[in-house]
Amino acid sequence: MTRRKIPVTVLTGFLGAGKTTLLNRLLKHPAMTGTAVLINEFGEVGLDHLLVERLDGDTVLLQAGCICCTVRGDLVRALGDLAQRAEAGQEIRRVVIETTGLADPAPILQTLISHPLMLTAYALDGVVTLVDAVAGDATLDTEAEAVKQAAMADRLVLTKTDLATREAAAALEGRLRILNPVAPVLRAMAGDVAPEALLGAGPFSTEGRIPAVAAWLAAEETEAAAHAHRHADGIEAFALVFDDPLPWDGLATWLEMLTVTRGDSLLRVKGLLNIAGEARPVVVHGVQRSFHPPARLAGWPLDHDRRSRIVFVTRNLPRGIVEDGLNAFLDAARQTGILKRG
């Protein structure tokens, strides 16, 4: 008897588009029972796997690089492991791959549609790309990865439409329809999209798409492409980790000052924080000059050490400048008694 192939959905979108928020909402639907999630992050410390609230199934962090550059082998190994578990009887009904916001989707798709493992155990169910309604237009102007993510989607999801003007959202939607004539454009409020609107979009095809899509995939067939470094010079990802609880007022002021003075260089900021006086972890995230209100999680992730972690993805903003600025704030805070040494 031939075993049913496991459908794979690729969830992508540029930094800050809301992938983790949407994934959390999706996984609460009964239709997503038995879903395994593979999460890739760009940088030395991952946070998204801690922010995905799982009800069942597996969450695997593909770390130490970008999925389109250095960890494609990790992706194949993770999928191979899941296929073995399914063969042994574990219920794995679907796989969702959440890519880093800097991922070029072409090498990922080339791997998923041509690797022998994919041809035997999996079926590419579709590519879902999130586009930020506020920052999306400027991002498409400047980021080649964002253009590819939109052009290669089977479903386009416009996020943060409540923060954008009606005219700006409509103009961006029109631009996306030209860039990708085959993908429906959906709108999501706080990541709320029904699974049936996103799933079952495959199999992936270049038919009807702009000619560049086929060219991008063809370029990935060479061995050299598999090892290519894909990100522009000046982009850096790093994490700052703090053992002691942080004072919210001072930290918020420092982040605000950073966004005002260097906002154009902040591609992404995401933090899981232990805030003084708070029993629950606080999540902060922002893109360039736009920060979302902080959110409190229901509780700390299992076995978490409760140290604060803030991940930055920057362009032409060295780690030293960010780290020195925050350390100067912490020293001043200690001297004034706002933050006591642990």
From TrEMBL:
Catalytic activity: GTP + H2O = GDP + phosphate + H(+)
InterPro entries referenced in this protein's UniProt entry, alphabetically: CobW-likC_sf, CobW-like_C, CobW/HypB/UreG_nucleotide-bd, P-loop_NTPase, Zinc-reg_GTPase_activator
Entry annotated with the keyword Lipid metabolism: no
Start and end residues of each CobW C-terminal domain: 235-330
Signal peptide: none
Claim: Chaperone is one of the keywords in the record: yes
Keywords per UniProt: Chaperone, Hydrolase, Nucleotide-binding
Stated family: Belongs to the SIMIBI class G3E GTPase family. ZNG1 subfamily.
Functional summary from the UniProt entry: Zinc chaperone that directly transfers zinc cofactor to target proteins, thereby activating them. Zinc is transferred from the CXCC motif in the GTPase domain to the zinc binding site in target proteins in a process requiring GTP hydrolysis.
The protein, known as: GTP-binding protein
